[in-house]
Specification:
binds 2-amino-4-trifluoromethylsulfanyl-butyric acid, Creatine Amidinohydrolase, alpha+beta, 5 helices, globular, binds cobalt (II) ion, 266 residues, 4-stranded antiparallel sheet
Amino acid sequence: MIRIKTNAEVELIRESALLVNRTIAELAALLRPGITTHQLDQRAEEFIRDNQAVPSFKNYRGYPYATCISVNDAVVHGFPMRKELNEGDLVSIDVGVFKNGFHGDSAYTFGLQPVAEAHQLLMRVTRASLELGVEKAIAGNRIGDISNAIQEYTERKHHFGVVRELVGHGLGKQLHEDPQVPNYGKKGTGAKLRENMVLAIEPMINLGTKDVIYDADGWTVRTKDGKYSAHYEHNVCVKKGKPDILSSFDSIIAQEKGNAQLFSDY
Ligand code: MF3
Ligand code: CO
């Protein structure tokens, strides 16, 4: 069942989503070769709790950390680890917070300098595909219009792999609500989008094959061919004419630009 939000509920989701983005921005300031993703996770949890919120992911279906940090060939759901990051790593940070009864859920992929050209393109294309998907979150469109926009751009135009096993989702009182939002599909299919539906749109794009495998930890999803992967996620409220993007990368991009250890397109 798809839950339509009231305007007041949408504002609470916006507050949670922006706190997620500020949390990721905090981590962007710390990112450098030598830091461990476990240290980043601890800082994230502290920052979230200091802001009167709780990490949505911790204990979600038994997930043991506040964040998912997926490095290089890890696609999503990577466990924070006590292993130091290196130059050239791609670090995808996915954070959820629960505050005032509503979740926010957003992700961003960083590159530790120097970043290979192919990986720069992967990041750029994945972020652009998110923007193309978000643009379709308009009342009267269908879920498949979002899915198709992402797939056409990444697969047909750039020949990257669109992960099939994991999808975007509705967002609200629950972290994962209906409908599912796949990153592949046909235009004009799936649930019709109605005003004040809130969606988490999150393309997971691989440089090589779309196929993935699970680590022995039962969570970490990796590319089958070991090539790198990128992941960006926005929370979007469906509106007539133009979507309302509840999350924002602005605070993250400001830190990314200010941190010389990070690749930035901006
Ligand atoms: N953004 C991810 C998702 O929507 C986060 C869930 S990770 C989990 O699936 F740890 F909470 F499972
Ligand atoms: Co999500």
